[in-house]
Amino acid sequence: MAKVTHWIDSFPDSFKFSNATIVCKGLAPYGAVSIGEIDTITDRIIARGDDPNAWLEEWCRMAEKLESEANAAVAAGHHLTAGHFYLRAGFYYYTGERFVPPGEEKRRHYMKSLHCCQEGIRRRYPQIEFCEVPYDGTTLPAYFLKAQGVSGPAPTVVVFDGMDNCKEMSILFCGLEFSRRGMNVLSIDGPGQGEALRARGIHSRYDYEVAGTAAYDFVTQRAEVDPQRVAVMGYSFGGYQAPRICAFDKRYAAGVAFGAMHWDIPQWLEQIYRDNRTNPKGSFSSTFQFQWVVGAKSEQEAMEMAKKFSLEGVAQRVTCPFLTLHGGEDRVVSIDSAHKVHAALGTPRKTLKVFSREEGAAEHVQVDDRQRGVDYIADWLAENM
Fold first, then answer.
1. How far apart are CA 55 and CA 46, in angstroms?
2. Are 154 and 24 in the same domain?
């Protein structure tokens, strides 16, 4: 009999692979991936043992099959069916690209992912608008989704990604839900994220309020947006960005850290380097990831840059209502960081929600039950914005 694994840990001997897989699996409730297809992919990877090419090739093998099926569905005039195939292909390409070092090969696979995801979004969700947010002499790619059933200006949520994530994910896993609840949503690939990094070479920055201000200015030019009720949410690494934005742009009415980020980012980065040297399968991240995201030329430069990514003396300046969510069994960011962020926030109107294993949604950014986390955020925003 084949070995049975916990669905969260598809690769019991590799947290790096398991974590990347569950991020992909977390899109299943939104019809953007298939659990059965993912199980087929992971079985094939495991069967190839220590083959270093297995991860990329098997995810892309499934993606190419689905992209071909999508193209055939388009030719037959079955555009909604094609939309599903394109979305699944897009997210499999994206997952396969994850551990490819920066370079032309990574960019090539990413562009396939972006193409497929966008072809899927156009067919499945024509109400999602593709837009460009002016920023620092260029633009940042984003999606705007109007609030459902609202006439006149509505509250709005600006959503920034994590370090390994993209706007194509967030417009589905939270954008659709927020829209149903009467909120506009701007899902944006900020500096160092998704398309902004992979296709345009726009690196991250410690003073993320610059991107936050650009997003606020963009949405409040729209007639659908109530400028007095705009919130900002960041997930995963965005748990650093959201408090920073709220601290320096007081126009935001509320903030959400959908998963707190490490309080001491240099220490976290040092741990990634150490884990990859001694136990690479045990680390959730590649050594190149942070360095690439911030545009550093070496590990040493990345460590120096990491020192600027701090909420010390910054979180204390947050005055708007703020929500911090965290998984009680988060294996990417320890629960201690969530408590430190929450304690440091200057606002008296702050909430810390920690999900337990018994309750569900206890993993990083509630990926094991993301709908539970999104519902909690939506209800909190309705009460606090």
1. 9
2. no
